[in-house]
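TICKET: design request
STATUS: open
ATTACHED STRUCTURE:
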């Protein structure tokens, strides 16, 4: 148990160093940081336009009131910032590392290769506007809905945000691992982006069949729908149990596929 705890502490410290070095690098080339910040701010304004539509029409969207939609779009914005800042650059860079052989150098490091490759870069410019703006939208929606602001509500909401982050990590890393067997993965990246964008609106706008697929088969709806559904009282016991199980089995699948891919990996320099 002590060994496991020491390992976890070691990796947390290592990740904080990754974050530190990423921020320092972005401050050296500030134009890239400013550009990313401005682009994400523009996208944030577009998301605000989405949120304004239900208010202008004054109607519910399949049971979601305008305030509930605002809460949902806030969560979607937060998750967009976390996914873009924590994972996107790392995931899309994996096929290039495989193709050019730069993965070989990382394999010599005395830590998990998957950890280094998938978490090494942190993009602050993508994260700040989305997390701050999304948090404000979610908070305003929460307040207007007069939802209880209790430790139970906050804890469940935060836990399901963490579930969404882990689910996004697994779901969108798996397609990029095709880079171990194929040369080009541009189409995979575009498909992944399209799948993520299905969360732009609550899953209730889709048919029951698509909802079931998006929850139980390819759990992309888990990423953004479960946190607001929890505070809105839309989560039953089976969905809560599924929320606990989803990241566990997905992370297991990712680990098994990663290990299988490495066993067949041949350096690009050979």
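STATUS: resolved
RESOLUTION: sequence designed for all positions
ATTACHED SEQUENCE:
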């Amino acid at each position: 148990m002590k060994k496991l705890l020491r390992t976890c502490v070691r990796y947390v410290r290592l990740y904080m160093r990754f974050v530190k070095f990423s921020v320092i690098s972005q401050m050296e080339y500030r134009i890239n940081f400013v550009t990313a910040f401005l682009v994400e701010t523009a996208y944030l304004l577009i998301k605000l336009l989405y949120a304004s539509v239900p208010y202008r029409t004054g109607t519910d969207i399949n049971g979601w009131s305008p305030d509930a939609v605002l809460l949902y779009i806030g969560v979607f914005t937060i998750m967009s910032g976390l996914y873009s800042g924590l994972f996107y650059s790392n995931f899309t860079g994996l096929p290039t590392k495989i193709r050019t052989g730069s993965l070989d150098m990382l394999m010599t490091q005395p830590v998990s290769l998957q950890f280094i490759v998938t978490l090494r870069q942190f993009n602050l410019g993508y994260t700040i506007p989305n997390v701050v703006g999304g948090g404000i939208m979610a908070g305003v929606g929460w307040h207007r809905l007069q939802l209880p602001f209790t430790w139970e509500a906050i804890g469940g909401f935060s836990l399901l945000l963490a579930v969404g982050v882990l689910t996004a990590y697994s779901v969108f890393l798996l397609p990029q691992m095709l880079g171990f067997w194929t040369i080009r993965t541009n189409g995979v990246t575009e498909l992944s982006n399209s799948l993520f964008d299905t969360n732009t609106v609550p899953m209730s706008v889709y048919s029951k069949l698509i909802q079931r697929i998006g929850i139980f088969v390819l759990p992309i709806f888990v990423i953004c729908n479960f946190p607001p559904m929890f505070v809105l009282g839309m989560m039953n016991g089976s969905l809560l149990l599924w929320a606990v199980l989803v990241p566990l089995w997905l992370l297991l699948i990712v680990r098994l596929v990663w290990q299988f891919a490495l066993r067949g990996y041949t350096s690009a320099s050979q």
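CLOSING REMARK: The two ends are 41 Å apart (CA to CA). The mean pLDDT is 88.
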